[in-house]
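Lab notebook: predicted structure, single chain.

Context: the supervisor wants predicted structures on file for every construct in the current expression panel, including those that have not yet been purified. This is the next one on the list. No modifications to the sequence; it matches the entry in the shared construct table.
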Amino acid sequence: MNNTDTVAQAEQWRADATRYKLLLRLVPAINHKLAGSLQPVSMLAALMARHLSRAQPDMSILSQNAADIQRTCKAAAVARADVLGWIQAPGSRPVTMAAGVAQCIGMLSAEFAIRGCTIDNQTGAAHAEVDLGAVTTLLASTLLTLLDGMTSPLAIRLQENAAIDREAGIVVSWTEMAQTEPLATGSNRHAIGWDDVQAIAAQEGVAMQHRHGRAELLFPALA
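Prediction complete. Output recorded below exactly as produced.
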């Protein structure tokens, strides 16, 4: 194995290790999202059980309860598929840029709020189709890199970089905010850095550039 092969293999290992660290960081959010999607099912089932315990149950109410349970079960299945999309094997899982970014923010917003940071997502009109795993993995890694390296709370903004030649981009920019109270610290055990993000970007075929206060991610568009 020559030196080029050795470097490539090392970068592959770094990317895989970063994916593992990212998954560990996301476990609490994943558990919370899955539990939250199932909670309405339990509540509706308890309500239906109360109606069934009556001497003369109202069949119209029971029919509505059954329909509500079916609807919430379908919603829970969709939520499960969305969450597991983060950790499934790489592949073409088309999603609009806006939807992929929204999923990522939904998973991370609580941790950022706890650390005093804000995320302003302005990608709602980004309709280019990209791979779900690539967007969520790269964006989550980028945001956690900011969280791990900050010395004061950050105001983070996400914007669309217009699609060019079958590519679709996200611009992540950030500024430091005034610190009004002691900064909440997180564990550095599974910290993620820019070299880690770059390794995943190379693995996903995503062009990435970053400098002080700004990072650009350019994804291959699927359609």
